[in-house]
Amino acid sequence: MARKKAVVKVEVAEDSDLSPPPAGLLKEESVVNGAVDEDKSAGRKKRKRTTKVETKDEEVIEEDVKPIVKGKKRRKVEVKGIENVAAEEGDEGDVVEKKVKRKRKTKEEKEAEAMPLAVRTVGHKLYIGAHVSSAGGVHNSVVNSVHIGANAFALFLKSQRKWANPPLAAEALTTFHGNCKSHLYDQAKHVVPHGSYLVNLAHIDKTRTEQAYDSFLDDLQRCEKLGIRLYNFHPGVANSTGGDRQAAIAHLASNLNRAHKATSTVVTLLENMAAGGNVLGSTFEDLRDTIALIDDKGRVGVCLDTCHAFAAGYDFRTPEAFKATVDKFDATVGIKYLRAMHINDSKAPFDSHRDLHANVGTGFLGLRAFHNIVNEPRFQGLPLILETPLESRDENGALLKDEKGKEIEDKGIWAREIKLLESMVGMDTESEDFLKQERALAKRGEPERKRLTDQIEKKREKGEKKAKSPRKRQVVANGKKGKKVESSGENDEAADASLGELSNEDDEV
Ligand SMILES: [Zn+2]
Ligand SMILES: [Zn+2]
């Protein structure tokens, strides 16, 4: 997991709505709401000092947090970036951050990075985008979205892996509104923030539920200030109720009802999950049962993740299977509750209950599944969000690395996936163009599909051996699946920490 830091000098055209300046990624990644993070841990202090040494243009950076205004003149702006920061969960659920230093880039490299990767498609019936970085402040998600040619986007409203966060800064708020307006994003319809991984609204312990509820409510309040109407979150885990699903769902619903009463407009979207076992949202019935207990049905909906659904046993691959899945969703939950989607392929096979996102067409879903998705009239107008990896691979699927042996992150992947998905509307799946792309993408994903198939097979064999021991059989009977959950046994804390990531390599968002 890596942090990239770069200082980029660019020419910014101020007269364009759809071809804006490059990603304005500012300051530190943890300052997602534009305020300075006051975390006093030794590790963070040390890191911040290092940041100061490496960068020296604090005052110029302020340039970029202002709304993009129309005008004909060009100006030079220093844009400093820390992109796609990730963190690793420590044993205690705390965040251990890794630092990677990068040398200053050449003029050519800076100019190449500054160019928008794709021009947004105007007037398309689908609103396709990605979960972009909000490093440096929520307002930066807008320019990051424009940078990849997206017509919708997801973001984190604050650090998704810690409880304490500074409030939304007034400047970030104003700039977010300004950026959405100048770049023509309707944040009420096409922006879908993702909730914190720590929040488990189904946890019945009083202290734990209050902590989760406060963080959740805080996110909803941020949405309302930002003019955002859709908010997506993971329903939770039924461990604290000893696996009693309905009791956990009732607790989740009561928290949602409370949060709806404390706010006025934002619609809370339950995300379907891959894991199975005690993880709520692994079935359409879980979503139905939760919605049934919500007082104000206008304030609840679903964000359907295609990778999660496929891993949970819902197929999308053939037109018939796709129709059966969407019809089942409609019959069980109701299509009117479908308000957003996460458009991911799956590195893990069908019904494997593993949550591993793959690039479009490279996973076990395959390009045909995405052809079905983009041609479904019931999905038109919804925000369709990519949560796919940004790993650069060659045509055979080998990871590309730079001269220092570091993996290369390529945001062009999202730009290309958006264009690919848009282009498949109305496309003939027997055309040479489609077949060629289908073959190329499947080939690129082959090594990862094989790796996961082997891994799952080994795990299954290991599981069968373990199941012979009475103690382990008990764990299986409780329905706990996934690396962390299984190893944590009765440890509720660890089980909750696994809400977003069921193993270290799962890349769920
Ligand atoms: Zn998702
Ligand atoms: Zn998610």
From TrEMBL:
InterPro entries the UniProt entry points to: AP_endonuc_2, AP_endonuc_F2_Zn_BS, Xyl_isomerase-like_sf, Xyl_isomerase-like_TIM-brl
Q: Where is this region: Disordered?
A: 1-55, 439-509
Give me the stretches of Basic and acidic residues compositional bias.
439-467
Q: Which GO terms describe its cellular component?
A: mitochondrion; nucleus
Question: Which GO terms fall under biological process for this protein?
Answer: base-excision repair
Q: Name one Pfam family in it.
A: AP_endonuc_2
GO molecular function (one): DNA-(apurinic or apyrimidinic site) endonuclease activity
Q: Where is the Xylose isomerase-like TIM barrel domain?
A: 147-401
Q: Which domain of life is it from?
A: Eukaryota
State its cofactor. Zn(2+)
Q: Which UniProt keywords apply?
A: DNA damage, DNA repair, Hydrolase, Lyase, Metal-binding, Zinc
Task: Please report which protein family the annotation says this sequence is part of.
Answer: Belongs to the AP endonuclease 2 family.
Instruction: Quote the PANTHER family the UniProt record gives.
Output: APURINIC-APYRIMIDINIC ENDONUCLEASE, ENDONUCLEASE IV ENDODEOXYRIBONUCLEASE IV
This chain belongs to which protein, by name?
A: Apurinic-apyrimidinic endonuclease 1
